UniProtKB/TrEMBL annotation, chains A, B:
Signal peptide: none
Residue positions binding Zn(2+) 2: 95, 130, 384
Pfam families: M20_dimer (PF07687), Peptidase_M20 (PF01546)
Annotated protein name in UniProt: Zn-dependent hydrolase
Amino acid sequence: MTSQPLINADRLWTRLMALAEIGATPAGGVNRQALSDGEIAAWRRVIGWALEAGLTPSTDAAGNLFLALAGQDRAAPPFLLGSHLDSQPTGGKFDGAAGVMAALEAAVTLAEQGDKPARDVIVVAWMNEEGSRFAPGMMGSEAFTGERDVAAIRAARDADGVSVGEALDRLHQAFRDLPHRPLGFAVESYLELHIEQGPLLEAAACTIGVVTGIQGKKTFQVVVEGAEGHAGTLAQQERRDALAAFARIATALHAEIGTIDTDIKFTIGRVAVMPNAPSVVPSRVSFSIDLRHPENAALTAAGVRITALCREYAPPCTVTVTPLVDAPSNAFDPQLQASIARASHDQGHPTMAILSAAGHDARHLAKICPAAMIFIPCRDGASHVEHEWAEPADVAAGASVLVQVLREVELARRSFTARHESGG
Amino acid sequence: MTSQPLINADRLWTRLMALAEIGATPAGGVNRQALSDGEIAAWRRVIGWALEAGLTPSTDAAGNLFLALAGQDRAAPPFLLGSHLDSQPTGGKFDGAAGVMAALEAAVTLAEQGDKPARDVIVVAWMNEEGSRFAPGMMGSEAFTGERDVAAIRAARDADGVSVGEALDRLHQAFRDLPHRPLGFAVESYLELHIEQGPLLEAAACTIGVVTGIQGKKTFQVVVEGAEGHAGTLAQQERRDALAAFARIATALHAEIGTIDTDIKFTIGRVAVMPNAPSVVPSRVSFSIDLRHPENAALTAAGVRITALCREYAPPCTVTVTPLVDAPSNAFDPQLQASIARASHDQGHPTMAILSAAGHDARHLAKICPAAMIFIPCRDGASHVEHEWAEPADVAAGASVLVQVLREVELARRSFTARHESGG
């Protein structure tokens, strides 16, 4: 039997739908890209709800938004929970927003019930998770955890030539009165709720996914160089046809890398051909490789083979393989996973352990503190689409689990700290 | 020993260079696309030179330009010779223009020397040979020979949305006083001089290429349809990856079709991937095929195999193969070829028989009358580039051969006609 949620389910759903009105698309989706007017409007609305409950808003140099519920020890590293408010250009109502609103609902619930946690509980909305307006994504969490320099992030530009720096300054100008926190303060733990973006929870009729980790990801940019020629006159045996070489390479990669095991994910998603004219032998083909695997050893081995296969099949053309992203798989904190499973069980929600195939800000937080994620189902596994959908009861269940985990972890840490301090 | 040219070599070169000033590019090339202001200005200049020599200009519904030297029998089908005045956007001074100016020089020479031919000799500049502004090319000669309907040609639009019809009306408005000939009148013979656009004449140190024919060409548009998916979540064995299918198809086509024999030319020049994002499994790949062969049987057989190979390697994706161009190879008139070889020999120009790899307006004229082409060398075989170059002496040699062929053919036809009429 499912118990009553520990949070105000109606309020959570109403606020989530109100948020989705900002940047709403005619087809029912959301276009609220990073640092846009839409995101500024979303900040205003979320800050308003936080202030109502007595939470304190602040920001930092990377444009992250923090909403703090004061704890007993204000100087202790806070407990962070949240996700992001930016969306894909044709995104949905839940990717990111569900995690921020569930976290806010959990913090507001604690505030309303006068349950003052051991340390501050801070709801966070990370800047530019999606990376659709400014590439690559996860800028806020990477800057926060020291993965990337703020100066480098500020230099990135959108398709209109606007830099992150300009857009960030505009955001901060719109919230002149908001205090700034130092970038990258110490964190006790991090929790993130997110829709699954896959079909597994729905298929297994589970309400809560206890995320074990995020699969590792490598990306490469490959450039095949040949020589241009006239399609009607250049003899076949004298050609250095970059498209023909690309086709051989791609066929070999799909055949070998794509069948290493059933966990591998291998994708050539973007291809650019030069000069790309019907009657000209192509001189240059550049293409992207997206490689993912839950085990780092398998990921590393596959990466090495990719380079070897590109070199083997390129001649008479030449090939350059440039590694871009190299994000090893990570495992989330076992104690936090156990807390999530326990809370779900207590509340009567069927759970399953699940690996995240997609990247999330939690990947970066996991490097600086114990971190974990809660997945809730999304219809047909569809995400990054306008018809993305999660059931109100599942959003409420996730937020309710968040509240219980917060309480349990804060209690456990308090006794641990007490034991540790007395034993020291 | 090379004899003195039968034409005024200085005048021909000076005029060709003056023509190249119209639409001249900073890098020394020409941008004078079909029906542009540049082509209108080129018409004005060419018509001026023709009028000076007593030739009569006219046009037709397809925007072809005719410059007629009156013959003895004005009612007899005329002898046509020429090429085109339009260029690629980054074209050179010779492709097309050399053929029109050599033809004009030949006609002007006949006029000056009072050598009145048996029938009218008409210099022609065909509308839109290149097909760069309005696709596909050879509109003027195809409309003239009945290959394509003028109404269909008028409907084609350039990148700015301007239709051929609008541009044609503008051209005719600019030359309001020019008489209109009926479209597609009877023609006695057709001759076209053109730069080779290949390296063979230069390599063999030949001044004149006696073109035996134009190799056959087929083009196809192929569309591979799969299903979009998330690169991080969709299991490899459940994918219908359009890019993977394209790579298999392209590899098989290059391996089999590209090695049928040493005469085959097989090119995949243009590729479009949808949605073309690094982390999305491609749902659709469309690509172009350009296939050429001097023998029609081989061309037809290769075309059939292309469709079969696309179907064999597409699953689990689907594939659609749409034939576009189907231009069989053609052989030029043996008597005209013999005349060209004889005239070249008489004037001391080394010749070779040569197959045209590229298409020309002469392909269409060959369907309605005896036709032939003269190639002259171009440096490094380079064409459709701004540094395209032909030597003044080679241009003069080509024009000089034109004059001699005109005289010989006209004499031969006169005696043939006389014999035929007396014998009838």
